[in-house]
Amino acid sequence: MPTTSFSIRVLLSAYFLTTLCFFSPNPATALHVGEAEEEGGGPPVPVPARHGAVVKKDKRWSVVTTEFGEISAVKVGDGKDGFYHLQFITMEPNSLFLPVHLHSDMVFYVDSGSGTLYWVDLEKDDDKLRQVELQAGDVYRLPTGSFFYLQSNLDPDRRKLRINAIFSDSKEEIREGSSFGAYASVRDLILGFDNRVLQAALNVDEEVIEELRSGGKQAMIVHGVSKAKMTELWEVQYRIVTAFPGRMKNNNMIDVSNKNKKYKAYNILTADHDVENCNGWSLVVTSKQLDVLKESDFSIFMVNLTKGAMMGPHWNPTTAEIGVVVKGRGMVHVVCPRTLNETECKNSRFRVEEGDVFVVPRYHPMAQMSFNNGSFVFMGFTTTTKKNHPQYLVGKASVLQVLDMRVLAASFGVSNTTMVEVLNAQREAIILECASCAEEEERLMEEKIQREKEEEAKRREEEERKKEEEEAKRREEEEEEAKRREEEEAKRREEEEEAKRREEEEAKRREEEEAKRREEEEAKRREEEEARRREEEEAKRREEEEAKMREEEEARQKEEDERREQEESRKKEEEEAKRQEEEAARRWEEQEEEARRRQEEEAKKQHEDEEARQKEESMKQHEEEEARAEAARRQRQEEEARRQQQQDERRRQEEEEEAEHGGGGGGHGGGEAEAASREEEEMARRERAAEAAARGRGRGRSGSYEELVGMGVVVTVDVIRHLGWYLHDNHHDNHSRNGSKFYNLGQTAIHG
User: Which of 42, 83, 277, 709 is the most exposed place for a label (fewest CB within 10 A)?
Assistant: First the structure.
């Protein structure tokens, strides 16, 4: 009998797993971003709440959307510890939220509709299936590690079951972000193992495992089943889940109990309110009211503000507030505590409507206000296990009421009377009347938004302008770069062409140099041959000249001997003639000295009168004399050349005659040669005398007697008469060494 019972349980397990294949979703549809996007939702981008934040309803990302319901979610930060995951579950009447395994605590509020929650906590020893009936206003918590599923009721008015849930991970996962999501499907937990493991664990054939895997992907919310069928399926599922850790008990049925008040939900709408007046009411649900919240990090609150009311300014010292608007709309004003860096901490105000989520971090004073035309209802979660006592800044419960009035007056910089008036005027405690406050906040918010839009537009214009300038600059730089590249390319081409041209020129130059070198070598070779030929001719010519020179030397030696004899004879005659000329000159000088003394005074007077004229004429005559002297010199040179030619001709004739007559005619020829030599010497003396006279005229006087004698001129009486010398004292400082000078009277040119 026990064997038969076990076989029946195995078959039921297989049947239930097959059912899960068609009704259980892929767990990632509720857990992970990628699959959530496949369902049509956006990525779960966390919304930070460092100084307050709001997430509009249309900004939630979709997790599941089917004809039987939908799930949307947001992820918000609390400004301190990390991020929290909120899900909004909407189920059509008579729909089923398939079984899942929780990875974190789940605290939720039933916003509308009704249904039944089935859950079990495997961490407890009793392993009891708990069934909780849910209705609008209920608050409940499911601990980490629980398995649950949810069935919505088919109400006569067909209201949808709407649940607002928050999930809490461990502190590390809150700070770093959980990678597992809020929950996972039971089907995927089981079918994640290999077939052999499943066969051993479930004790079934491989065909059964393959049939379990053959089911397609299912959505998280499906059409509902009857309660009897639901109980049966849950029992089978429970047995399968507990079979893996070996926790299946001997009893065949699971105890389903809903009679223990410890596990009942707490309804906010029917509970007594903590604060209530004509402006609204509020309450907080903690572990005192709901036993299942004892081990939770969350508590739940709800605030209902009537028209034109306000939740007085207050702050939370130990927790952040995560609020969800349930009904109506309102304004929330958050004041940022001042820090050293005020640019990072700014006050904020935002308008919220039904379905919006807003977060206020701890220590941030806040105030919620309703509009004059409607109420404002919101619920929310606080994120701490510690006792949280909100601190109010105004009203009868204000902290200001317990502080010293004089200290308060000093802190505000007002008088004590003013501060007393302010404190005594506050009659209500927490929820206050505030007509048109929300409207004013909305107006200020819109003005701020408008300013921010204008600033943003201005900033965008500035960025656009800067972008255009940068684009223009970039284009300009690109153009310059292109131009630079073109110039570099052109320069490169020019350099290449220049290099090519230089190479061609170098090649041409090398060819020309090679040709020139060959020509030079050829010319050098020819020159060397010509030099050798000339050397041979020169050697031959030198031999002929040496022979001729020897002959001429012998003839010259003979002539030299004869000429030496003639020269000695001539010198004797010249010395005698010179002595006679010197004697005649001395006598002539004495005569001239006497005449000079007689004429000195007359010459001196004439000289003084005509000195200027003489100088001018002297210069003019000097130029003329130089011209005549040059002409005479040329003429003498020509005559000398003619005489030399005549002498050469005469000498040649004499040599020929000597050759013809032999030694017999030697005496006659020698006499003619001596006469010609004397004539040449006489011509040379005359030329020297003429040059001396010309130099004297250049200095304003003729040459002196000493100069003529010094030049070897034989001064005879005829010569003196011909040159026209006379003795004259030109000036007292122009005396010669002997105190007298010869002056040229005639100023005539000297010719040979």
Answer: 42
